[in-house]
Design brief:
This protein is an alpha/beta fold and 405 residues long. It has helices at 2-5, 95-100, 160-167, 184-187, 210-218, 257-265, 274-293, 308-311, 318-331, 367-375, 380-389, and strands spanning 33-38, 41-46, 59-63, 65-67, 71-75, 81-91, 104-112, 121-128, 131-143, 146-153, 195-198, 222-229, 251-256, 270-273, 336-341, 354-360, 400-404. A nine-stranded mixed β-sheet has the order 2-1-17-16-14-3-12-13-15.
Length: 405
Amino acid sequence: MNDTRHIKISEFDYPLPDERIAKFPLPVRDESKLLVYRHGKVSQDIFTSLPDYLPKGSLMIFNNTKVIQARLHFRKETGALIEVFCLEPIQPNDYALSFQQTRQCSWLCMIGNLKKWKGGTLSREIEIKGKKLILTATRGECRGTSHWVDFKWNDASFTFADVLEVAGELPIPPYLNRATQESDKETYQTVYSKIKGSVAAPTAGLHFTERVLNRLREQGVELEELTLHVGAGTFKPVKSEEIEGHSMHTEYISVHKHTLEKLIAHGGEAIAVGTTSVRTLESLYYIGVTLLQNPDASEEALHVKQWVPYENHIKINAVEALRQILDYLNRHEMETLHTSTQIIIAPGYRYNIVKAMITNFHQPKSTLLLLVSAFVKGDWRTIYNYALANGFRFLSYGDSSLLIP
């Protein structure tokens, strides 16, 4: 545990020239490069060949979250432009319910140009389906680096989802150093995205197309989905010298009973598409451990705190952990587990459910690079040196890798 806490983030740095960061995706998603890392050996292929590397009968898990147009811009009478970036709903505090609201709702937001918004209400006129309405934003209490913001609009025939669809802007990653374009509305969503709530795409999934998904099914790979709403914290740099000083952001997860049953049927083993699926699946293990210790745990107690994996020394197998969750849902007559996680996966972590991972190439000195390093037992430089030497494109719109330790 202490070894993990005292990992120096400087040891996870590498040179990433700006020209290696993919500013736009390839015209055809599945024609991106695929780096294959198997048992310490590295090779390359094209993403359409992914099914050839996966064993028949394996289970692949996708994150079906959908990116929302979370950036709202308001102009003050002085001319100052204020950006209100919706992070997570507060009232109501459920994503689906918040999007269904028809007059008002409250969100936790990051504020751009905060010093110019001392107080008062911001407003702007928007047009939805030919009808004009006024959208207002009123700033409330400060919560860490974010603020409570009350939104109101004067037409009950439209939901907050309608408002965001028209007034909001898709929040592409800051490291792309460019404005959002109309094309991003399609290319920054996975083809299987369904559940609105993320402010960043689960980018490993951007490579998948219907033809790849069909080939996976033909190869006998079973496909299942879960939901983790990706927060803006995914871009939060590690500023502390040691990772002990880095506070992980909370992300909200939903896993259906059917998915738990599939995981159990596959011996508690899965191929994860993206680090968001990885974090969700590995969080399930520790939720199961919590329920083993306390079958009547409250919903709050199921939240996976950052350091739980390194402090909890109870060891059970993955199937037993998943059965604990399934039993909990059955006892409470629930179809879906709704909870949250702050899990940090770093060298010293022992993976419990994820046996193979599809992921893009991550920023230097990021928690996602720590997660990859833990998975390949510290061999991340072999992978990244190969990618840099062989023309791979990096970050959200970049190329992909299949990691099999």
